[in-house]
């Protein structure tokens, strides 16, 4: 890269901005290092930026101002590590994509939330909600933690939400750049470009035809699968738009997606099934296919060093979330399949499955512990699986917190006693 757009860095007053560790004066050095010819310098820069302007999913006042430069270097084909660059840019836009799946981005709801945050009455609204939240705490420990969160004040949460939205809006300006990357020579770049376009439903009318073009010409199964999921998310976000009528082109898309049932790639078959569920156009076969993924997994071909983009590459957990979005009464085999997958999982990898299977078993969390003999058969089986999970799972605080939410004994000894083991 010869003509570095460093003016996009130099024009920002970084000293007036902040990141996770304070004043953002070190950000310009890291941004410049992203185009260094030295791969170790680039790696160190990404690591630093991930810890400062994107820290554990949070965005800061210095996050959005960095985006214009990031998009400018992405546009240059000579920039190194462009798949990594798209990945980082999308983290700035979204936080963790697991927070937005399987539904995608609901821009109407998000913009309404931001308008509320900017309202002069928001402080009173926030205090009232926090008081209700504290009153609903399941135990003294949770009540104490929630009071601590209230004591931090609404200002921090308000600012973090506004910074996150500002970062998303800044990245949205780069949609034309992502579209151009769909024809890049690098399969990794094409893969991540397709992923990026999934998250901007307001640009669906112009992005969708390009993603369908990817399906016509793309040899790589991972890229095609990514484009399919992106289309499902873009068109699936019509919920609540206008009169609720499907947007133009969705019927043709559904027909096309159903044709992938016979695709040579199991990954493409799975992606089409996921997209059809999001579009609420699934048939029993598609649900069975997603459920089967929970049992056997899916091989991801040619997804590059970073892996498959959606859900951090964890297709089993993504599938579990898709199953949880279904009406289980219409698909009685779905919930047992998630429970079966949970019985074979352990440690931190089991946490999403635990959350999903409890949602499937109980719906909303009960207000108090239900006697074991009063549980349904599936609820009993679920708690038995949880009681029998190993210490590598029980040692996780997140696991225990999920059990507390559902009023299930939160020690292994207590849980085993509860189920009669």
From TrEMBL:
Q: Superkingdom of this entry's organism?
A: Eukaryota
Protein known as: HEAT repeat-domain-containing protein
Q: What is the lineage of its organism?
A: Eukaryota, Fungi, Dikarya, Ascomycota, Pezizomycotina
